């Protein structure tokens, strides 16, 4: 344990306890340090072994004990202290529940595993100076130990009968092959990464990159020869008990899963009716997905990878310019966001990375091209309102901007997935409400994105819990969900290509409970806005509400509606 939580004898209020926790977390997890922009983290990687996971759990337990004392102090009932204390307690309790169920011993995924964290952190590691590249070299040489610790966890999971899913295992083996540059689609990730280094440090970097790549190959070979045969034939789904535990972790609430499943179906029927209306404007007599296939060939599109990156940058710049001062009030440093192309070998879905704490690294959106060079616009406009402006970027950059008024914890590592994804989906709807989806093509693309989030609620809960498909469903009514039915349903109700659908289903299977947070989080944001508008009447100011809502830091869904309703 570091000395941060134990230094000094003065009692600490909840926000001080929370921020001391962040300092200790960074010491154990330098990947988190890099995301926050801590320069000292750049040369290190975490200990992903069972002992490393136990150290994180010990830190959480120590922090919760200190929080008990902090909440008894005068001043702890202040609103800012109260919100921070509730978030810290809920998050650490949820994390401990996951740890104590030994979920880290079967962390196999196509998007969310220690191996993915190791690769992705290099995209955010500073590379401006020779000192930066020296740190990169040291971090590259730490890759073998990091991946060996992860493999130690998986091996212990095999010994205890705690196994990852076969589908995620197969997918991850393929990703590791891509990262190693052995599938013919791209150079080895680490070797390509260091190719941008100046001539001086290149020799040492090339050797360090080769060491890192060899560690990826070793993990891939072990997973292919040992892990995959051991997990073959087991279910990919997790059951109600594990699902409820992960749902709490990702959503910050103990959901009524049957009610959430029913809500997903109600949204499905509502959206399907709207999609049929828009589809008829594009291709009379066609259904929604027939119209979307028509747009794939005949709709507006961008030709070229660099061209689509620049176009997405322009889309965000335009939204920033139009929304600032009308529906938001943004600081200059929040206004900067960059469009990037994602490195190959990752999941198919676009994503966002937050700015560093000092904004020296801006917020960035990332587009996986999946080998494409031609990009239909209909499914990009709403997605970039989600990932960039006014979605993830405005929320997460604003948290960083006001971190000194909150706590470092609330603005960074305390993020609840359903809060952030709910805001980003609310942001898509807001742009529709404000008239930014300019034609039937863009609006059908938006509704397709919304339908995907409703389908996530249906299939994620349905297949993991083995629920029955309702009698009023046009798809296999009365049957029990299986993974194959979920993939068929998702494919029939999405305008996205088959590799995207495959990637999405693998993601849901290996991250149970995360995908439902988009729609359920959006519902919470909309209810909070409706409650605040009803309470304030004609004095309700949407711009003021947006800024107050974006400046309160992270909250779980347990607290989000209540706090939003008071603004």
Based on CA inertia axes, which overall geometry fits? Answer: globular
Number of domains: 2
**Strand-residue fraction?**
under 5%
Gyration radius (Cα, Å) is: 23 Å
* Whole-number mean pLDDT: 95
Please trace the helix and strand order, writing H or E for each element. Answer: HHHHHHHHHHHHEHEEEEHHHHHHHHHH
3D structure, described in words:
This protein has 567 residues and is mostly helical. The protein folds into 2 domains: 222 residues, no CATH class; 271 residues, no CATH class. The protein has a 3-stranded mixed β-sheet with strand order 2-4-3. α1 packs across α2, α1 packs antiparallel against α3 and α18 runs antiparallel to α19. The radius of gyration is 23 Å and the shape is globular.
Short structural summary:
With 567 residues, the chain is mainly alpha-helical.
Quick tags:
567 residues, mainly alpha, 3-stranded mixed β-sheet, two-stranded antiparallel ribbon, 5 strands, 3% strand
